[in-house]
Amino acid sequence: MMLSLFLIIPLLGAIAAYAVPRMSRHIALAAAMAMAAVGLLSLSLFDTGIKTLQLIEKIPWLDLGGFTVSYHLGVDGISYPMVLLTAFLAVVAVLVSRREVHTREAPYYAILLGDVAAIAGVFMAQDLVMFFVFWEAVLVLTFLLILLWGGENRKYASMKFLIFTGLGSAFLLIAIIMLAVYGKSVDLVTLAGTTLPLEAQYAFLALLVLAFFIKMPIVPFHTWLPDAHVQAPTAGSILLAGVMLKMGAYGLLRLGSLVPDAIAAASPFLFWMGVITIIYGAWVCLAQDNLKRLIAYSSVNHMGFVLVGIATGSALGITGVVFEMVSHGILAALLFALAGVVHQQTGTFDLGSLHGLIRKMPKVGWFMVVASFGALGLPSMTGFIAEFIIIFASFQEFGMFTLVPLAGMILAGGYFLRLLAKAVFGRNDRLAIGEQRVSMLPFGLLLAASFLLGLLPFLLIDIIRASVLT
């Protein structure tokens, strides 16, 4: 029942928020905090010494003759951290929304909480039909968030998001049907003990690559992401960068494990696609003058490191992948939350117009400085631990070729320093700041989480070890 609470609480909160419009923001915050509380409580039930699924819930739902579709939830060291991250970011998303959203609040919070529930469902589902249902729910609800509460070009951005991710869903559906035919089941636990013919493994992996590369996204399937981020409301960007992109990497890890021979053969391909994404994402960041678009392309850069870690196929590499997904989820959420408040107070995302921001908004400016260094891999923060593990694992598997993605880290230093020089520091007497009071609570929560896991990485690594180091 514990895992079901990650679905029931936000869904009940969504219904209540819609039914009682005047209390919608308070109901949404209460639901998000209750979900986070369940996450903390569940820590006492998760055994880091067990490799298999935990907190399992399984109820047969639909008998299709050859196989049964079930309400089947479970978590392990790979999925459990993502569920906890989703619950944590739900609180942050609601907090920033209380400052930003003042029209049609009831449907907004209902959709936001529904989106959170669907994301958690993706990471918990152990039945492929359920997995796909949750996956599609995330697509539809995120589309609505961008379309109804996005910026000036929200229609274009939302339709582009829908087309790209919808195409990825089509590939995923074909892959699931194919797996069900060959494996005679849609249950992931059952399928884990099934060996597919090598030709089927290659075909299945090709479909997974197309589906999940779009979602992560990996170059050249990335073009929907910057537009979606720029036009999305701040909470939408927080969830999109924080956990939605990770759905693609998680899917590649979870479903890719069903075709180990194909994954092993495709390892060099995955590595070089990750390298291209790292270099391209960092290079394009250097040319960006829009704060939100720059952060969006930095997400492309970081997801390249995730793919490099997956390509290693080693226990150390997968540990780095999960750590990087959590780290980037926290730091990207912080950067987008800061970008949201900067836009609200100044009315612009243009870096040149924001020159001297730290003089007018010193607290926000210093948060931006620390968040940028965290994303660069500042020791004592999560980014350093995550990228160090991935690079070390990559050296073990690919040797000196790892020097190429290291060049992407140097470029990342360039674009974040450019961000700080062009937008944060300096003097700009023409920069006008709004008078609305800004709460530092969401930023403080995210920064504290990054420092906590950066200084005490074993808190997360012990959880991951349950599945990849045992």
Structural summary, described in words:
By secondary structure, this protein is mainly alpha-helical. It has a two-stranded antiparallel ribbon with strand order 1-2. 74% of the residues lie in helices and 4% in strands. The longest helix has 32 residues, at 315-346. It is globular. The relative contact order is 0.10. A hairpin with a 4-residue loop joins strand 1 and strand 2 (68-75). It has 20 helices and two strands. The protein has two domains: 1-259, no CATH class; 266-470, no CATH class. The mean pLDDT is 93.
Question: What order do the helices and strands come in, and which of them pair?
Answer:
Blueprint (H helix, E strand, L loop, with lengths): L1 H18 L4 H19 L11 E10 L4 E8 L4 H21 L4 H20 L3 H22 L4 H30 L4 H4 L6 H18 L8 H8 L2 H23 L3 H6 L1 H19 L5 H22 L2 H32 L10 H4 L1 H15 L5 H17 L4 H22 L16 H15 L2 H11 L2
Antiparallel strand pairs: 1-2
Indicate the overall shape. globular
Number of helices: 20
Count of beta strands: 2
How many domains, in number, for the residues? 2
Structural class: mainly alpha
- The overall pLDDT average reads 93
Rg from Cα:
21 Å
Major β-sheet strand ordering = 1-2
Distance between the termini: 26 Å
Uncertain regions: pLDDT < 50 for 5+ in a row? Answer: none
- Percentage of helical residues? over 70%
What about the largest sheet?
2 strands, antiparallel
Strand content: under 5%
Give the SSE order as H and E letters.
HHEEHHHHHHHHHHHHHHHHHH
